[in-house]
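#onboarding

Welcome to the new folks! Below is a worked example of what a typical request in this channel looks like: someone posts a single protein sequence, and someone else replies with the predicted structure as tokens. Don't worry about understanding the tokens yet, we'll cover that in week two.

Example request:
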Amino acid sequence: MAQGNSGSLASFRAEDRPSTHLANSPLAHLRRGSIKTLQVNIGKRCNLACHHCHVESGPLRTERLSEAGCVRVLELLALNPAVEVLDLTGGAPELHEGFRDLVRGARKLGRRVIDRCNLTVLFESGQDDTAQFLADHGVEVVASLPCYTPENVENQRGRNVFDRSIKALQLLNTLGYGQGNDEHALHLVYNPGGAFLPGNQSVLEAEFRERLGAEHGIVFDRLLTLTNMPIKRFAHSLQREGAYDEYMSLLIAHFNPETLPDLMCRSLLSVDHQGYFFDCDFNQACEISIPGSVQNIWQIDDLGELEGNRVGVGPHCFGCTAGSGSSCGGALSADGADGEPGP
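Example response:
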């Protein structure tokens, strides 16, 4: 594998390009299973601008799902009882004016609701009662906390983020989160602080549990490890450092076929702020549309019609299959820390 410093796909020899490996790997033949999770990016506005953010959210972003789009999402949930989860993401989804109506509507339909929360948003203006709202409506919180030390967190997410994140976790704990109750589940998301694969999820979870408990009195349910995807802000950082080729080589070399059955693109359908469908949040960021004629929330009533369709893939997909694998639900394979040679 070429290890050039240009930080672009063009620096790979033709036979070593990620696209060549992709075409020759099982990823090229992925098909959808039944859709269990509808993940909706309801807006790109965020109070933070994290270095690793693959959707490049920030305080100045204005893209948002329309009121009609929010209504249609709830209609699709009602029409598709097999979809078990509404997963709300952004940006900071709590900043969208339709966030609470989506939560109420989905919970009324008996669906699980996940809020992908950056924690600090709970202390933004107008969000004083958001934590209580989440608790009152049984919303599961998946919270980004890339480390248990201030330095590593703030290198990725900005100044003073660690202290506010700790206070937010303590607040959620007082409301019953992180104590084994499914409706008040609190999961933390870890991603590496550089161009390397996450460590063993169980080992990291034990470390987080010990440090956060001893130093801050914090409890949580699970730690979910997430591989940094070589797209958008993280890809730009790799390119500036001349490390893009090396990182792609790492992902490809650690391809683990055991991750394939549980890849999130097989059971999750991603919706962007305009109502368009994607096979996952990363494809959404890369603007890789779902294959087929149905492209958005207004063109279909029965999501079961998408079952069996081909999944759109790109070189970044090696991020989800490297080592123990990676997904919105954490690692995919307990035994894949070292992965398998790439195809």
